[in-house]
Structures are given as structure tokens and as C-alpha cells.
Amino acid sequence: MGHFLFISGPELVIIILVVLVLFGANKMPELARGLGKGMREFRKAADDIKRELEDSASDVRKDMDEFRDDVNKTLKP
Length: 77
Known about the structure:
Number of strands: 0
Order of helices and strands: HH
Strand content: under 5%
């Protein structure tokens, strides 16, 4: 197993065993589905934020280009 969030293989096995003891085998699929759903929602929110930042950056870039063009036109004799 590789490292996932700084957790090595043996540590991951211990965590799974503790979860199994605490919640039982019947709750494991439900917990896994909930975790997967939460991760999908987090990823979707992160993608939305990233998209919004990229859109804002392109608007700022456009405004800066227009400003630069205006300054160049003003400075040319």
C-alpha cells in the first residue's frame, strides 16, 4: 500500500479494524458510501471554486491588458 495522507499500510489496517469494531460489519458499506459521497461533494465544491478563480483571473487579465493598451496609446506621441 502507498501512503495516503501520511498513513502507512499497517496504520491503515489498524484504523480499519478499529472502525470495524466500533461500527460493526453491517455499517461498513453505509460508512463507505457516506465517505465517498462526502469526497465527491468536496471535490465538486473545490472544482467550482477553482473555476470561479480562473474566471476572475481572466477578467482581471483582460482589464489589465486594456489598461496597458490605454497607457501605451496615451504615452505615444
